[in-house]
Design goal:
By secondary structure, this protein is an alpha/beta fold. 30% of the residues lie in helices and 28% in strands. A 7-stranded mixed β-sheet has the order 3-2-1-4-5-7-6, with helices on both faces.
């Protein structure tokens, strides 16, 4: 896997075993939609795995990124990727449950311009992630929530704090874009 755009374009990203990384096509779709707004943003990469989405954000001009993954092994690989790419100072890696981290960010008053969430498939995590982020308001006004889901996963598009903007299909995946009201 490699970085597809920005100042780190072409640099390799190590992928942990048993991780389904966001592929080139999906990353390109996400970046095409967000490119006009990504500069100087505060980003959250939930269910981060390799840190692929957060690293792409930093490469294309994000100011800072929090990476959250529950598996210590994955967090260590994210740390290594950040160090290898020379962007360790632009990030914080948390080994923590995504839903607990959402609550913690909320209680600390930390808000994001962009939240990427790529939850595990087949566990109803997509729906739970949407509800948590809607209930625990961690996205700044006019900020974005981008959720990658499997076509057969349950999700909703009617949220109290977000407007559903669009969805893009890439194979068996859907990328859902929401904007905070």
């Amino acid at each position: 896997m490699y970085v597809v755009s920005g100042r780190l374009k072409g640099k390799n990203i190590k992928i942990p075993p048993n991780v389904r990384p966001t592929n080139f096509r999906i990353k390109k779709i996400m970046l095409d939609v967000l490119r006009p707004v990504i500069k100087d943003t505060m980003v959250l990469d939930l269910f981060a795995g390799s840190g692929n989405l957060g690293i792409e954000s930093l490469s294309t001009g994000a100011r800072f990124c929090y990476f959250v993954d529950i598996k210590k092994r994955y967090s260590q690989i994210i740390e290594r990727n950040l160090s290898t790419l020379g962007i360790r100072n632009l990030a914080q890696v948390l080994t923590k449950d995504a839903f607990k981290s959402i609550k913690d960010f909320y209680h600390k008053g930390i808000k994001f311009d962009i939240v990427f969430a790529d939850p595990p498939y087949y566990k109803d995590y997509a729906l739970k992630t949407l509800k948590y982020i809607d209930d625990y308001d961690i996205v700044k006004n006019s900020g974005f929530l981008v959720l990658q889901v499997f076509l057969k996963d349950k999700f909703i598009t009617k949220l109290k704090n977000f407007e559903f903007l669009l969805h893009k299909r890439a194979g068996q995946d859907l990328i859902l874009f929401f904007k905070h009201l």
